[in-house]
Amino acid sequence: MRTKPDQQHKAKNDRTDLRERVAAVLESLRPMVRADGGDIELVDVDEEGVAHIRLLGACVGCPSSEMTLTMGIERTLRERVPEVTRVVCA
Question: pLDDT per residue over 7-20, tens digit each?
């Protein structure tokens, strides 16, 4: 079944809006991550609501990065953007 062009446009706009909201939350978290010498970058948010992020700087190889990802970043994203189902490292 093919979707109508206006449905495709709406889906793309919804996904763009979701990505913008996720980016805004990550931006609010960035100072805390940078305080420890790291950084975060949004790579994508897919159709299933999975946010793909990249950890940078001191976060790369840090033993605490998994805890930061799940207990900090994912928890905050899921609270503020309910469409996010999980967060994974890209």
Answer: 665 666 787 899 99
CATH number of 39's domain: 3.30.300.130
Computed over every residue of the chain, the mean pLDDT equals 89
Nearest to 53 by CA among 31, 79, 30: 30
> Could you read off the pLDDT of 42-60 as tens digits, one per residue?
999 999 999 999 999 999 9
Q: In angstroms, rounded to a whole number, what is the distance separating the alpha carbons of residues 29 and 68?
A: 11
Residue type, 46: D
Distance CA 59, CA 39 (A): 7
Q: Return the beta strands (E) in 4-63 as ranges.
A: 38-45, 50-57
Q: How many structural domains compose the chain?
A: 1
Show the domain range for 10. Answer: 5-89
Task: Give the model's pLDDT for residue 90.
Answer: 87
Give CA 11 to chain center in angstroms. Answer: 18
